[in-house]
Amino acid sequence: MTATGTFLRAFLRRDRWLVLWFLLGTPTLYWTQAYSVDGIYRSQAEFDRAAAAMGDNAAFVAMAGPARALNTTGGQVAWQASAFGAIVVGLMAMFIVGRHTRSEEETGREELLRSGVVARTAPMTAALLAATVASAVVAAGVTGSLLLYGLPAAGSWVLGVGVLGCGVAFGGVALLAAQVTTTARATYGLTGAVIGVSYGLRAIGDVSGGGLSWLSPIGWYQAMHAYSGERWWPVVLLVVLGALTTAAAYLVFERRDLGAGIWATRVGPDRASPRLLSGLGLAWRMQRSSVFWWSVGMLVGGYAYGAMGDDVTTMMGDSQFSKDIFAAGGGADLLDSFYAVATLMLVLIAAGFTVSSALRPHSEEQAGRVEALLATGLSRARWYAGQALVTVAGSVVVLLAAGLGIGVGYAAVTGDWSAVQRLTGATFSQLAGLLVLGALARLLHAVAPRWAPLAWLGVLYCWVILMFGELLEFPQWVIDVSPFSHLAAVPAVDMRWTPFLTVLALAAAMSTAGLLAFRHRDVH
Amino acid sequence: MEHVIEISGLVKTFGSVRALDGLDLEVHPGEVHGFLGPNGAGKSTTIRILLGLLRADGGHVALLDGDPWRDAAALHRRLAYVPGEVNLWPGLTGGEVIDLLGRLRGGLDERKRADLLERFQLDPTKKGRAYSKGNRQKVALVAALSADVELLLLDEPTAGLDPIMESQFQQCIDDFRDGGGTVLLSSHILAEVERLCDRVSILREGRVVECGTLAELRHLTRTSIHAELATTAADLATHEGIHDFVAEGHRVDFDVDTELLGDVLAHLGTFGIRSLTSQPPTLEELFLRHYGDEVVAEPQPAGATS
């Protein structure tokens, strides 16, 4: 294990800012739940009523987790924050492992490192340890913040230790993914898919009451029952998953060459197809697989929502609280309000595609691939426009998939096939807001390339406004900053074209401003 | 068109760093112009400004009688560029990249493409991520050289190529020049520069410090003299144009400014020469003198061309 310690120190040094952000963000995620819950309910009776309504709500259960002790602050924290906390720490572990293993190998830096006096496995061991240390730091932050808030000690410790367990489990998954794939992008894609499936499995399992949640690491974390009769043994499952994937990663590692995955690199055509030979053709080629997989994901995700059918009404009951929660939908009919909110949630997930696609020009420039292109007859404007067009068209396709999914899911359960058109239309009513998020990424890349990834904050902002806007009673202007606040929440209310076209025009204006800025700056 | 590239007083700053500080450069039609200088001297920055990728902060730049910033796309159809570090798309094959860059440049010569693939022994079916550094470089070279253009901008194009490929590259540049093309070649490989370049410009800290043919530049540097004399000649040390003087009994070793060689030899004759060896400056010495941190008090470049 020569040099593992040296690597670990170097990695932690490189990651210190990343870890700091997660250390600030993750405990905040938990802590704000406690804070907001205690702020909302004036009496225990009101809290009990709300808790009962929430616990009976399949959509909420699917989103958050199994409903336990929801009429306590601790129970609310565990319910609302644990699934997202697991995802957040899983993503952190994934990035730390990925950037120090496959990413280093892909760029060729690993070769340089490994030629030194180091054990062959030292970098990967150190990467895994770095992810574990970072998870432990974040876990300590979670436990610490909850203890400081004054929640019961046992539950606070369970929530923290579970976070560490999720970091270990998903870190191991990332380490294995890094051995199997040949690019960092694919490593993140594969690990992200595992995290996504874990979330999906527990969502279905929690709603159906079946055992599917036991196939999900996130389910294991929630099975630790923080603040509602804690049990420690599920954390063993998380550690075992981490250990098994790590062992598998070492096995694959010992059997492959530097730079290779387990699949040999395939050869391709020696001539380019005519469709590739333009700025637009290249942009599409770069993103078509991403468009495809996102569409598949959204189709499945949409179906899951749609398959709740019209049971939603009974699940929500007719409590005032349910009506308040879906006030974001703005309609009188609970069923329509539910689907308006569900649609918006799908749209904000689709924003993941839109923003990453809109940031593609940024990553191309970072990778030094733009220079050679712009040194040809391809003008900056055409290159930029080709990239933007693919993002817009891809967003339309991904939204269409989401709409079809939710519509077909609903129709399959209720037999009401007109819902396909109605719910697909509802999804599309949010397109303009989605395109504003993409345009924001484009504009940032054009004006201040270093800050381009901050476009993700735009998605986060809209998400917070959607989820907590009404509940936390933000000032109106704060709510108005989100483009989605201006769009009609179809099907709860009728489609309104004026705001839709206005927001669409805003997206077009931001993209145009981006183009003008991009034409006037240095390209690296 | 008098000059293919005409740059005067070019300035480019990155934050507080002045990457180019009043750079002047002229490249004549039909010549291979060597562009030399230590790392960080501003070679790549100059080429990126010529490509319209970076915007000049001051000075005048003309490329093929056009403005490289304003007319970028139109000018690019008449030139081809090979970067020092070629980054390929991991999922595209070499052949696809060659076709893509060729088409975007306005078409490529099929016969040349096939011939170059053969010459450079490049497998066009491999994916970008599977190529070694040398092979990535070859992809960019084939794409550039199979284009039908007037000007090649080459930024250390042969880094990573083996000697056989290097000689193929030199052959290609010869052919291109024979066809009337102009080349701006940034390079650290002295043999390559000596073999290919008609004229060279040497950069240091963002400006051109020497420019001329190699013969002219050689004139600017020093010849090493080892002599055995009939008498001791300590006062030689103070003679104009003599440097690094070492005397050991009757033997003397020193360097002399090549311009003053005749003068110094005449003076040396007065001490009675028993034996004499002189070593003309090597290209390497020429460059090291300009690359080193120390800037030696230098003769004016103008004197070289007279």
Task: Please tag this protein with its features.
heterodimer; A: about 525 residues; mainly alpha; 2 domains; 23 helices; B: about 300 residues; alpha/beta; Alpha-Beta Plaits; six-stranded mixed β-sheet; 11 helices; about 30% strand; disordered C terminus; ATP-binding (chain B)
Please tell me what the overall shape of chain A is.
Answer: globular
What is the averaged pLDDT score of chain A?
A: 88
Biggest sheet of chain B, strands in spatial order? 5-6-7-3-8-9
SSE order of chain B, as H and E? EEEHEHEHHHEHEHEEHEEEHEHH
Describe the structure.
The complex is a heterodimer of chains A (524) and B (306). Chain A has helices at 4-40, 44-55, 58-63, 73-100, 102-107, 109-114, 122-149, 153-180, 184-208, 217-222, 234-254, 279-306, 312-316, 320-325, 334-358, 360-366, 370-374, 380-414, 418-428, 431-447, 455-468, 476-481, 497-519. The relative contact order of chain A is 0.08. Chain A is mostly helical and 524 residues long. In chain A, helix 4 (73-100) packs parallel to helix 8 (153-180), helix 12 (279-306) runs parallel beside helix 18 and helix 15 runs antiparallel to helix 21. Chain A is 73% helix and 0% strand. Chain A has two domains: 1-259, no CATH class; 275-524. Chain B folds into two domains: 5-210, Rossmann fold; 218-305, Alpha-Beta Plaits. Chain B contains eleven helices and 13 strands. In chain B, strand 6 (151-155), helix 6 and strand 7 form a beta-alpha-beta unit. In chain B, helix 3 packs parallel to helix 5. At the A-B interface, helix 12 and helix 17 of A face helix 2 and helix 3 of B. Chain B: It comes from Nocardioides pocheonensis. Chain B: GO terms for molecular function: ATP binding; ATP hydrolysis activity.
